[in-house]
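Lecture notes, part 5. Sequence design as translation. It can be helpful to think of inverse folding as translation between two languages: the language of shapes and the language of residues. The source text, in structure tokens, appears below.
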């Protein structure tokens, strides 16, 4: 059963939820002495219909995130008439589906192993923008490369002409204060920029912790329910 916060969220209109998040981003950016215009908001629309993305497009949003290939493919086809959209693949990516994802995604946020670099590195007309995902937990089953292996993976991406490294991505651990985790990610980002000065972007921060992510330099936020409302129950 939804709790009171969930019910209150869904009582707001889509425009109201978006405005509330945009105000929160502006406040967090100001507190960090950063321009809000430097921050890209990616709306994660898992389980939501393509019609919601059309509404978001009418409200000025252009960056949408998906983490399931089959669902993302269907939405990309349904919304093909909206040619100014950028699709961000933000979920764990299977090597066997990576080439297909590269067919519609403008940005892949979850490169975490050499096999993905190999598959995504197939020659193409324009380089695919990407982030290397870092695992900030001690659980090797979680998505992301271990910090100790980050440099080698970054070097492999940099040696792949079909990929353009934007920076690093991570999800804050559930059992740690988010800002502390994002501070570690920021330090790792600074290490990456010693290898590739242009790869200075940080994909971090979701509905519940985007303010902490902004405080630690996040440039790309992956926000779902705070904007879209609660996800429909999948059939």
């Amino acid at each position: 059963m939804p709790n009171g916060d969930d019910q209150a969220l869904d009582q707001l209109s889509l425009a109201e939820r978006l405005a509330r998040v945009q105000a929160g981003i502006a406040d967090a950016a100001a507190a960090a002495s950063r321009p809000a215009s430097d921050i890209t908001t990616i709306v994660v629309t898992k389980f939501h219909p393509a019609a919601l993305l059309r509404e978001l497009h009418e409200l000025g949003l252009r960056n949408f995130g998906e983490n399931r290939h089959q669902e993302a493919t269907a939405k990309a086809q349904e919304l093909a008439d909206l040619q100014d959209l950028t699709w961000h693949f933000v979920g764990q990516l299977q090597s066997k589906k990576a080439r297909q994802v590269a067919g519609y995604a403008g940005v892949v946020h979850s490169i975490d192993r050499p096999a993905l670099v190999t598959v995504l590195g197939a020659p193409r007309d324009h380089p695919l923008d990407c982030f290397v995902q870092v695992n900030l937990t001690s659980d090797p089953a979680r998505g992301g490369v271990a910090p100790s292996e980050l440099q080698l993976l970054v070097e492999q991406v940099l040696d792949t002409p079909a990929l353009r490294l934007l920076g690093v991505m991570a999800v804050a651990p559930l059992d740690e204060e988010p800002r502390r985790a994002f501070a570690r990610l920021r330090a790792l980002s600074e290490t990456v920029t010693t290898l590739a000065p242009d790869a200075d972007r940080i994909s971090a921060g979701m509905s519940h912790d985007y303010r902490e992510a902004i405080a630690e330099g996040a440039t790309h936020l992956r926000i779902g329910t705070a904007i879209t409302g609660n996800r429909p129950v999948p059939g």
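The translated text above is only one of many valid answers, since several sequences can fold into similar shapes. The chain has one domain: 4-228.
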